[in-house]
């Protein structure tokens, strides 16, 4: 009986010690998607794409000035601000600062 009680006490104490040693820091998790295709990609040039694989790859990897939100409403993506002239013929696009690091000074 003493042996069972000693094992129980040891298990409870070990549980408390291991719980106290745990970290409560919020660890940032990264999400990674690995995607493979069985067919060869014919092109990544948007003007030369003719097959569905190329179109799907371009859709998944290219970002535009706008993107659709969950309600299919266009929202700004790479554009930070858009000013449209009063006659509707001229659009002035201000790009996000993240592009400066990717493409140099704009």
Describe the fold and architecture.
With 106 residues, the chain is an alpha+beta fold. Helices cover 33% and strands 16% of the residues. The protein contains three helices and four strands; from the N terminus they run H-H-E-E-E-E-H. The chain has helices at 2-20, 52-61, 98-103; strands at residues 66-68, 74-76, 79-84, 91-95. The strands form two sheets. The chain has a two-stranded antiparallel ribbon with strand order 1-2. Strand 3 and strand 4 (91-95) form a beta hairpin. The longest helix is centred in the N-terminal third of the chain and has 19 residues, at 2-20. The chain is elongated. The relative contact order is 0.07. The model has no long low-confidence stretch (mean pLDDT 80).
């Amino acid at each position: 009986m003493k042996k069972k009680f000693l094992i129980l006490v040891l298990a409870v104490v070990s549980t408390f010690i291991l719980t106290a040693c745990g970290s409560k820091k919020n660890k940032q998790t990264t999400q990674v998607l690995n995607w493979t295709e069985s067919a060869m990609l014919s092109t990544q040039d948007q003007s030369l794409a003719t097959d569905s694989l190329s179109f799907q790859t371009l859709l998944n990897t290219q970002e535009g000035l706008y993107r659709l939100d969950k309600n299919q409403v266009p929202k700004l993506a790479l554009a930070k601000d858009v000013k449209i002239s009063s006659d509707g013929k001229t659009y002035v696009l201000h790009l996000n600062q993240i592009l400066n690091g990717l493409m140099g000074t704009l």
